[in-house]
Specification:
The complex is a heterotrimer of chains A (406), B (132) and C (123). Helices cover 80% and strands 0% of the residues of chain A. Chain A is mainly alpha-helical. In chain A, helix 4 packs parallel to helix 10 (177-190) and helix 4 crosses helix 15 (335-361). The longest helix of chain A is centred in the last third of the chain and has 47 residues, at 252-298. In chain B, helix 1 (2-44) runs antiparallel to helix 2 and helix 1 (2-44) packs parallel to helix 3 (81-103). The two termini of chain B are 31 Å apart. The relative contact order of chain B is 0.19. Chain C has 123 residues and is of the alpha+beta class. Chain C has one domain (10-118): PRC-barrel domain (SH3 type barrels, Roll). Chain C has a four-stranded mixed β-sheet with strand order 2-1-7-6, with no helix packed on it. In chain C, strands 3-4-5 form a three-stranded antiparallel β-sheet, with no helix packed on it. The longest helix of chain C is centred in the last third of the chain and has 11 residues, at 108-118. Chains in contact: A-B, A-C. Chain A binds chain C through residues 63-65, 69, 72-73, 76-78, 80-81, 130-131, 295, 298-302, 307-313, 315-316, 365-366, and chain C through 13, 16-19, 25-29, 31, 50, 52, 55, 58-60, 93-94, 107, 109-110, 113-114, 116-118, 120, 122-123.
């Protein structure tokens, strides 16, 4: 049981990272537009994030350095500063989107005034994050977010054409800019940097050391694979429910409708409950990631394992992030649109985050016997190439496809 | 001659762009109507939650209204006027039917009728989009 | 891990690394390194400089004046703290110092904000 509970970090990082508000809609659109033809991109993204997260967790456990520590050490001040600013902006946009998403889900459940719900969502998240210890936060959001497994059951229940599913997992190409945009989006969504900022800092919050390297491997592999399975299930449900009716799922409510079509009211409630905690978990990840990056770059004391007055600037930073997100989302901006832009811009910032981790993981001075092996280096560099290609293609594709609208 | 080509080029491009936008709007209406039909079907079978129908229905209706406004505001390409008017009428019908679901979610018989209508309007909107 | 006795790559092992005081508190980064000694003399590693006031000097030339305005101009004691090299205890996964952050003038920002945060419940 203890071992299962220790997987919470990987699960919250993955569920919050993979199935945040953007993905809940983006995956549904991927399935509605291209049925199973994007499943392989999820698989590529999952392998990429497992490799990346395992490295960040190992670097954190062995050398005590979370991601932004390595960014500052390996990329220097100027490039580090560019990465910091980009990460903070992306984190804020994503946090605003997630807070908006929590309010949308609460609205679908209780039908109250949207503005009040946004305030309630922010206050609820701040209170939970302030009073609950780190491992409690991991467990609340990680395990409650597992209600989204209803989509896995629904995907099977809806009797998909399994040979098409199998074909979809094999990499293929479809000659259209919209398809390429979705490939970039699906891979990029798996590799959002805030997941790894949170994961590697969480490894230090959970006091991981060399003895925990197997735990790190299990968290990275199982947690992120679970996120990937949920992504695949969302695409499959959408392919079965929305593609035949030619529905373009543009709302969180539409994604919830997919579960309702399979299991009626129970399916709807489980989907909304899972969404509430997955999107809430993503909000917590974003707020913490913002505070982690800022504190680690500047060398401040940080960590939820410290009392708030022992890490005061870190504590104020995540609170200010929530306050700013509240202001952004109260302007009435569409949270789904916000997060789709955030995913695409994240992809552009990704190489600057990935490279220093890869360099550190291959550096015997800091990693000793736990340095990347030959295979680890080959896979690590191969994914660096994938990340570079994806990040170079992201913005042009967003412009050509008008943000995926055709 | 170059000047004429220069002048005609952007105009035809603009016409194509306007047609594309109209087509996207009408396709979106088809999508909203098809989704409304699914919501109505679940409502008629008692497989949903009232708050969900109210809130999600309100999002769908607002989106239908938004598409109607865009169709009204877009520069009308010659020959498209009639089809745009038909699309605006469809948007209004679709929005109205979804509104009925929202206001009386207990009425399963009405939901079944709305489901059939929305399904039909989705087909009509799709055909209309193809003709643009 | 003790301070390496042989040649040490300062940019690789010291610059930009985390400073941690004798009580285990994170208290800044090695933002710059200061040497003593004139022309023709043997340079002597004098101090680690910590604080955002050093940052503008490390930015590309066109950004330096903006950097100074945003991050500080490098006033020692205010936005830059000199940590004498003698105060370095160990260079391992972080730079460990022999004294408390408070006594070295480090971690001032955290101490100032601590008063605000201490007013929150259960802080």
């Amino acid at each position: 049981m203890k071992k299962v509970l220790q997987l919470a970090l990987g699960i919250i990082a993955a569920i919050g990272g993979f199935v945040d508000i953007g993905e809940l809609v983006f995956n549904a659109q991927a399935g509605a537009f291209f049925r199973y033809r994007l499943l392989w991109a999820v698989v590529v993204g999952v392998i990429g994030i497992v490799v990346f997260a395992e490295m960040t967790g190992r670097v954190a456990a062995v050398s005590g350095r979370p991601v932004f520590d390595t960014v500052r050490m390996r990329m220097g001040l100027t490039v580090g500063l560019v990465t910091l600013i980009a990460s903070l902006v992306i984190n804020l946009i994503t946090l605003a989107a997630e807070v908006g998403g929590v309010a949308v889900v609460l609205n679908l459940l209780f039908d109250l005034n949207q503005s009040t719900l946004i305030l309630l969502a922010v206050m609820g998240l701040v209170v939970i994050v302030y009073f609950v210890p780190f491992d409690g936060i991991e467990r609340i959001f990680g395990y409650m977010g597992c209600a989204l497994l209803v989509y896995v059951v629904a995907a099977v229940h809806l009797r998909p054409e399994w040979h098409q599913v199998a074909q979809g997992v094999v990499p293929s190409w479809h000659p259209s800019a919209l398809y390429a945009y979705f490939v970039v989006g699906v891979i990029g969504a798996a590799l959002v940097p805030y997941e790894v900022y949170f994961y590697s800092s969480g490894a230090i919050e959970d006091s991981w050391g060399v003895k925990d390297l197997n735990l790190n491997r299990a968290n990275a592999a199982l947690g992120f694979s679970l996120g990937g399975i949920l992504s695949i299930a969302l695409i499959m449900v959408s392919a079965e429910v929305f593609a035949p009716a030619q529905i373009d799922p543009g709302f969180l409510g539409t994604t919830a409708l997919g579960a309702q079509r399979a299991f009626g009211e129970t399916g709807l409630l489980l989907a909304l409950l899972g969404m509430l905690f997955a999107v809430g978990g993503a909000a917590v990840e974003c707020a913490f990631s913002g505070a982690y990056t800022l504190a680690q770059f500047a060398g401040w004391e940080w960590g939820k394992y410290r009392r708030p007055r022992e890490a005061p600037r870190f504590t104020l930073a995540w609170m200010i992030f929530f306050a700013l997100a509240f202001v952004v989302v109260e302007t009435g901006v569409d949270p789904v649109l916000l997060t789709e832009y955030a995913v695409i811009f994240s992809v552009v910032a990704l190489p600057l985050t990935y490279l220093p981790v890869l360099l550190m993981a291959s550096d015997r001075t800091f990693m000793g016997d736990h340095v990347n092996g030959v295979l680890g280096n080959v896979i690590g560099w191969a994914f660096f190439v994938v990340i570079l290609v994806v990040s170079l293609a992201a913005i042009p594709l967003m412009i050509i496809t008008q943000g995926g609208s055709g | 001659m170059l000047m004429v080509a220069g002048a005609v080029g952007p105009l035809s491009g603009c016409g194509r762009e306007a047609r594309h936008q109209v087509r996207l709007s009408v396709e979106e209406l088809a999508s909203i109507s098809a989704e409304g039909a699914l919501v109505a079907d679940d409502l008629a079978r008692g497989r949903t939650k009232t708050t969900f129908v109210r809130v999600h229905g309100s999002e769908l209706r607002a989106q239908a209204e938004h598409e109607a406004e865009k169709l009204n505001d877009d520069p009308v390409a010659p020959g498209l006027h009639g089809r745009i008017q038909a699309a605006i009428k469809l948007a209004s019908d679709i929005g109205g039917a979804i509104d009925d679901l929202r206001t009386s979610p207990q009425n399963r018989a009405q939901a079944r009728v709305a489901q059939r209508k929305l399904h039909r309007w989705a087909d009509q909107a799709r055909k209309l989009a193809e003709s643009v | 891990m003790a301070i390496p006795t042989g040649p040490m790559d300062l940019v690789y092992r010291v610059l930009d690394d985390q400073l941690v005081d004798v009580e285990g508190q994170r208290c800044g980064r090695a933002d710059d390194i200061e040497f003593d000694g004139g022309l023709g003399e043997r340079p002597l590693l004098h101090a680690i400089l910590s604080g955002s006031g050093t940052w503008h000097r490390r930015l590309p030339r066109p950004l330096r004046s903006v950097g100074a305005r945003v991050f500080g101009t490098g006033l020692v004691g205010a936005d830059v703290i000199q940590v004498p090299w003698d105060e370095v205890d160990d260079i391992g996964s972080v730079i460990r110092l022999k004294a408390r952050a408070r006594d070295l003038g480090l971690g001032q920002g955290d101490r100032r904000r601590a008063e605000t945060v201490a007013r929150l419940p259960d802080s």
